[in-house]
Design a protein that fits this description.
Blueprint (H helix, E strand, L loop, with lengths): L1 H18 L3 H22 L4 H25 L7 H21 L3 H23 L14 H13 L7 H16 L2 H10 L1 E2 L1 H27 L14 H28 L5 E2 L3
Antiparallel strand pairs: 1-2
Helix pairs in contact: 3-5, 3-9, 4-5, 4-7, 6-7, 7-10, 9-10
């Protein structure tokens, strides 16, 4: 406890100092932190495929935290059913495409995560329905599904199977925005209980690993990867954009999450 306090005090002072800075300084610090993390990852991880494994593993850990919550606390309060449904959608599509192309470690991770997500959906819709905040989980799913499908129709990888190409792109785009209903619900609630906060933070870590892969890949190829032969002129840039969008929308929550943890608070409080 004493060692934890020794660690927390300077970190609390750091967060207090950051809060007092101008938006320009905060932005500069954020960019510096991200660049530092990217350089660190590049030095530590040499196999690009490991970034995806880490991203999928972080997502699965987040799902396990939710399973623990639902199993022990018997409540799904604070969780977005729509985010879980969108997650099941992109996992199902990606799993189908993966099985059509070539099964690997990603296929196994997607299958396990899909099974876990399906269990969460079942529990939220039937067993724990009374604790589901349906009135606050008010983002319409078609708002993210229809644009993702439309973009996938026009911007997708160039392969011999047009349907698989469109479906794969659709899964990528849906994954990029699947967390939006959860973020909307949390904005409505304002106070996030620990397990839900841990889950969303795990999603943030997952997206950062995935986004880091593409950025480092482009850097290592001096930009030539953006116009990868056979990938479609806009496909790779669109993937990177989708990753950046999801990383960006989760970054704000991750800041408040880390701030709460460093202050020893169990609940994460979002600004009004």
């Amino acid at each position: 406890m004493g060692q934890k306090g020794v660690l927390q005090r300077p970190l609390q002072k750091l967060f207090s100092w950051v809060r007092k800075q101008s938006n320009k300084v905060k932005t500069s610090l954020g960019v510096f932190t991200v660049l530092t993390l990217l350089v660190t990852l590049k030095l530590l991880i040499h196999e690009h495929n490991h970034f995806f494994v880490l991203a999928e593993f972080a997502h699965f850990v987040g799902i396990l935290l939710l399973i623990y919550k639902l199993s022990t606390l018997n409540t799904c309060s604070g969780l977005s059913l729509k985010t879980q449904q969108l997650t099941a959608t992109f996992l199902s599509v990606r799993l189908f495409c993966s099985l059509q192309i070539e099964g690997d470690i990603h296929t196994i991770l997607d299958l396990v995560t899909l099974v876990a997500t399906s269990w969460l959906i079942f529990m939220m819709k039937y067993k724990l329905k009374s604790s589901y905040m349906e009135d606050l989980d008010n983002m319409k799913k078609y708002i993210v599904i229809l644009p993702s499908l439309a973009i996938a129709f026009f911007i997708h990888p160039q392969t011999n199977n047009l349907i698989i190409s469109i479906l794969w792109a659709f899964a990528v785009y849906i994954e990029g925005v699947s967390v939006l209903p959860q973020l909307r619900l949390m904005q409505n609630v304002k106070i996030i209980e620990p397990f839900t906060a841990h889950y969303v933070f795990a999603l943030g870590v997952s997206r950062f690993f995935s986004c880091a892969h593409w950025i480092i890949k482009v850097y290592d190829t001096a930009g030539s990867y953006l116009s990868l032969s056979g990938g479609g002129f806009l496909w790779i840039p669109m993937i990177i954009l989708a990753e950046i969008v999801q990383t960006f929308v989760l970054a704000d929550f991750c800041y408040y999450y880390v701030k709460s943890v460093m202050q020893g608070q169990m609940m994460v409080r979002l600004p009004a």
